[in-house]
Amino acid sequence: MPWNALFKLARKKHPQADADAVRGPEPLTHQDTRAAIEELSQAVRNNPESVEIYLALGNLYRSQGEIERAIHIRNSLINRPGLDQALRARSYFELGRDFRRGGMLDKAREAFSKAAGLLGDTEDVQLELARLAADCGEFERAAEHYARVGSSMAQAHYLAHQARDCFRHGDTEKGARLVAQALAAFPASPEAWLANVVHSALAVDLPVLTKTLREACDSIPANQRFLLLEGLLDVLSAARVEDGTPGLPLERESISELVRACVAVLAAQEPDALICYYCAKLYLFEADLDNARHWLEKSLVLNSDFWLARLELVSLVLTDLELTPFLRDQLAYFVSHARKSKRFVCKTCGFRWDKTFFTCPRCRSWHSILFRQEFS
Fold first, then answer.
1. Read out DSSP for 21-49?
2. What pLDDT, in 10s, does the model give residues 222-274?
3. How far apart are CA 57 and CA 72, in angstroms?
4. What are the φ and ψ backbone dihedral angles of 34, each rounded to 5 degrees?
5. Do domains 3-136 and 251-340 have the same CATH topology?
6. What is the pLDDT of residue 24?
7. Considering only the top CATH level, what class is 251-340?
8. What are the structural domain ranges in the chain?
9. How far is CA 36 from each of CA 20, 45, 53, 358, rounded to the nearest angstrom?
10. How far apart are alpha carbons 62 and 69 in whole angstroms?
11. Can you give the pTM of this predicted structure?
12. What are the distances in angstroms from CA 202 to CA 235, 238, 254, 285?
């Protein structure tokens, strides 16, 4: 049986065996897993030649964090005389996953390389090597592995990640080259466009910023533009603080110019509730309350259920009202806590978070994030 078929067969037979592969919370309770381990251990004693049972038992040990036991099982199989090459390769593959789970990354890479040496570079091995490279901070290598399996989103993501590091350390030429490679691989990559926009913003290069932001808005799907704008706001906020980053902090006048340039580009886009909301956030960043109120009202005209825009508008109105100190404090308390509601949701699994993500922390799907405009 081919290596890929064997690997997928094991995952089909034991869907809860590996916590790394589970999409969503672990469905087995601790007690259920321990009971499964006891049953498989008994099955191994009754049939010591069954390789499949050994592999399943090792996966359960790994899911429980008992890495040493899992590794012991893999090594016992690898050293078994006469073991089929496909099963030996699979044992090396699972051993690599054990090592990665245990933080032994060099040993994990060695095990995956041996699995590939026995039956060739399969897609499963390439994906594991890609994740391993990313864990080690070797983002260009991770991009290469993802390119080999045709995962252009992931390839662009890690090229953009490396580009951000290059820009941060002053290697502008390499950073620009990596961004270009990322956009060639996946032209709609919000990560790559964000790296470009941030670089031009921190350089206070207004013509380039305007051009890049316009191209980014044209290239990124409308429901993902908030990834670009959220990242831009974060950078502008950080630009006020001296944190050791080259070129920071920026002068207040420079930040004002950046805000005006960004709003001019966004205002020229097709009317959209999120675009209006981020125009308001940019003006709030500059404490321009009148313009912020104008854009929040436009946002609510486009989507009357946009709870966060309504919340920001209420917060602005409160500054104009004559309220008792007690009532003002109570309203401020509720507004501040409402702002903490998780704004972002994965459309694949429903995971909610208060920070943007390019790959879902729960189900690992790429670019599945949405801005939760309606409160529920």
1. T-SSS--S-HHHHHHHHHHHHHHHHH-TT
2. 999 999 999 999 988 887 765 545 555 778 888 889 999 999 999 999 989 99
3. 11
4. -60, -40
5. yes
6. 42
7. mainly alpha
8. 3-136, 251-340, 342-376
9. 18, 14, 11, 35
10. 8
11. 0.79
12. 8, 10, 9, 16
Q: How many residues does the chain have?
A: 376
Amino acid at 88: R
DSSP 3-state assignment of 67?
helix
So what's the pLDDT on residue 126?
A: 93
Place of tokens 């995962």: 151
- Give 277-290 pLDDT, tens digit per residue: 999 999 988 888 99
Cα(67)–Cα(105) distance, integer angstroms: 13
In the structure encoding, which two tokens stand for residue 101, read together?
Answer: 């789970």
Q: Provide DSSP, 266-328.
A: HHTSPP-HHHHHHHHHHHHHTT-HHHHHHHHHHHHHH-TTBHHHHHHHHHHHHTTS---HHHH
Bigger pLDDT: 225 or 22?
A: 225
AA letter at 18: D
Q: Which CATH architecture has domain 3-136?
A: Alpha Horseshoe (1.25)
